[in-house]
Design brief:
The protein has 4 helices and 8 strands. With 180 residues, the protein is of the alpha/beta class. It has a 5-stranded parallel beta sheet. The longest helix is centred in the first third of the chain and has 19 residues. The chain starts with a strand and ends with a strand.
């Protein structure tokens, strides 16, 4: 893959995580009946970072789950190689609760659509809010919008946006790769 252009460096990355955590506290208080659910795999990384930030700055222990959407995707039969599902860990009742669904990049909206379908197997939440690090808002195939956004990227459909995490890529950053 060609070298990407950095659009969010590690300093700004930390500021974004802090701002997203503060917005959650501002809108949901101590997150008592608000649960955070990360979409496997990269949404879980963002969710875990948010939870760490909430614990460090506000001493908030919030309920957290991991959601795998592999077989809820509308394209899972169209893949060339076999799919590898990740673990779903939702060991709490979501009925009547507010859920913060977390993913790293919201692009076409298909992942979020699949996540909502998967969550319905666990019950009927009162509200689902969407939080992401990167919102590619002009590339939607479905009418999905974010409630909490780290950064908006207006790029051509052919461009690729990637969030790197220091836990897996040795550096926190957001990169954009052009199609050319």
């Amino acid at each position: 893959m060609p070298v990407g252009r950095t659009i969010v460096d590690s300093t700004k990355f930390g500021i974004i995580i802090n701002r997203l955590a503060e917005q959650l506290v501002e809108n949901h208080g101590q997150l008592t009946d608000t649960y955070i659910i990360g979409i496997q795999e990269r949404g879980v990384m963002l969710a875990e970072r948010l939870i760490s930030q909430l614990k460090a700055t506000h001493d908030i222990d919030c309920t957290f789950g991991k959601l795998d959407i592999t077989f809820y995707r509308d394209d899972f039969r169209q893949r060339d190689k076999p799919l590898k599902a990740s673990e779903t860990q939702i060991d709490f009742d979501i009925e009547g609760k507010t859920l913060i669904l977390v993913d790293d990049v919201v692009y076409s909206g298909r992942t979020i659509h699949a996540a909502i379908a998967a969550l319905q197997d666990f019950g009927r939440p009162d509200t689902i809010k969407l939080l992401c690090m990167v919102d590619r808002r002009f590339n939607r195939h479905l009418p999905i919008q974010t409630d909490y956004t780290g950064v908006q990227v207006d790029a051509l459909d052919e461009a690729y946006v990637k969030v790197n995490w220091k836990e897996t890529n040795n550096k926190d950053e957001v990169l954009i790769y052009s199609a050319k």
